[in-house]
Design a protein that fits this description.
With about 325 residues, the chain is α/β, with parallel strands linked by helices. It has 10 helices and 12 strands. It has helices at about 30-40, 50-65, 80-85, 125-130, 180-195, 200-210, 215-230, 255-265, 285-290, 305-320, and strands at about 45-50, 70-75, 95, 110-115, 135-140, 155-160, 175-180, 240, 250, 270, 280-285, 295-300. The strands form 2 sheets. A 7-stranded mixed sheet has the order 1-7-6-5-4-2-3. A 5-stranded mixed sheet has the order 8-9-12-11-10. α8 (about 255-265) packs across α10. The structure holds pyridoxal-5'-phosphate (PLP). Pyridoxal-5'-phosphate binds near residues 52 and 53. GO terms for molecular function: cystathionine gamma-lyase activity; pyridoxal phosphate binding.
Length: about 325
């Protein structure tokens, strides 16, 4: 049976004292049901947030202090480093490093992405775990079915649940999972005090999406695999990045102009941002990331459509490159 959808913001005290649920900014039953399921998937204690960035913000505010430095994986999700820039007035600093090797000495928090969006490198987990600083791994592009950061020695596993976990492009959500009870309590406190809390509807939609996560991911991955091979053999494609699993790949055409022509020529694949949903999406990341990203890079998130239909659309769009 689906979890009950309880939209209450407050619940009556029991015999004059707060029961397990009293005010939804702390916890609510639908959120706790989603957290239980997410915790099982990641192998720890999960906290739900209203977006992936809500999870990133809560982790940063809880685990960092003014003057501390975050070592962020190069080529990882652009929005994360934009947020860290935005937090500079609060004394946070960040540096980029190549996550396929050891993090820089002196970093106070290591921020990995498995695999990185959109450059699709995988972190060296052993090198990160050997560093004295705590390690956060954003595994949005892998999902907990493919990478479990806590088992790899990380302190926090983080996901934008907006993506493949919910899977239908109809809800924003985020999750951070930890094994350490003190860290769980500290994150929960920041979330409650700051009100960075997902509502019951978001939790319910996420739970419904999780019911089909395994079959969606298997099919999206099989199609992504086939498309990566076909793209690699196409004369207009210079580089294909695909880590061998996941629904996400990126490839380069000659330059920024060619990338924009391919985008506009698409008929079936949506020319839109985001990833992990049931409908395939392609976009030039250069429009958001500037010089951080090759001008000809196109990021393709593979959905549930038929592989041949997707290839036909890509092939006709690449003719415009
Ligand atoms: N982490 C990764 C890897 C992402 O791709 C994104 C969004 O694209 C986020 C975090 C942020 O998630 P949200 O958009 O749910 O805030």
């Amino acid at each position: 049976m689906p979890a009950p959808l309880d939209r209450s913001a407050a619940w009556p005290y029991e015999n004059g004292a707060p029961g397990p649920f009293s005010y939804a900014r702390a916890d609510h039953p639908t959120g706790v049901a989603a957290e239980r399921r997410l915790g099982e998937l990641d192998g720890g204690r999960a906290l739900l947030f209203p977006s992936g960035m809500g999870a990133v913000t809560t982790v940063a505010l809880t685990m960092l202090r003014p003057g501390r430095t975050i070592a962020v994986a190069a080529g990882s999700y652009y929005g994360t480093s934009v947020l860290f820039d935005h937090l500079a007035p609060w004394g946070l600093r960040w540096v980029e490093f190549d996550q396929t090797g050891p993090p820089p000495a002196g970093a106070d928090l290591i921020w990995l992405e498995a695999p990185a969006n959109p450059l699709l490198t995988m972190p060296d987990f052993a090198a990160a775990a050997a560093h004295p600083a705590p390690v956060v791994c954003d595994a949005t592009v892998a999902s907990p079915l493919r990478v479990k950061p806590l088992e790899q020695g990380c302190d926090v596993a983080l996901h934008s649940a907006t993506k493949v976990l919910a899977g239908h492009d109809d809800v924003l959500a985020g999750v951070a999972t930890v094994s350490d009870d003190a860290l769980f309590d500290a994150l929960h406190l920041t979330r409650r005090l700051a009100g960075i809390v997902a509502g019951a509807d978001a939790a319910w939609l996420l739970l419904r999406g999780l019911e089909t996560l395994e079959v969606r991911l298997e099919r999206q991955e099989a199609t992504a695999h086939a498309l990566a091979q076909r793209l690699a053999a196409h004369p207009a494609v210079e580089t294909v990045r695909y880590p061998g699993f996941s629904f996400l790949l990126s490839f380069d055409v000659a330059d920024g102009g060619a990338a924009l022509r391919v985008e506009r020529a698409l008929r079936r694949i949506e020319n839109a941002t985001s990833l992990g949903g049931v409908r395939s999406k392609l976009e030039s990341r250069h429009r958001w990331e500037g010089d951080r990203c090759p001008p000809g890079l196109l990021r393709l998130s593979v959905g549930l459509e038929d592989a041949d239909v997707l290839w036909a659309d890509l092939a006709q769009a690449l003719a415009a490159a």
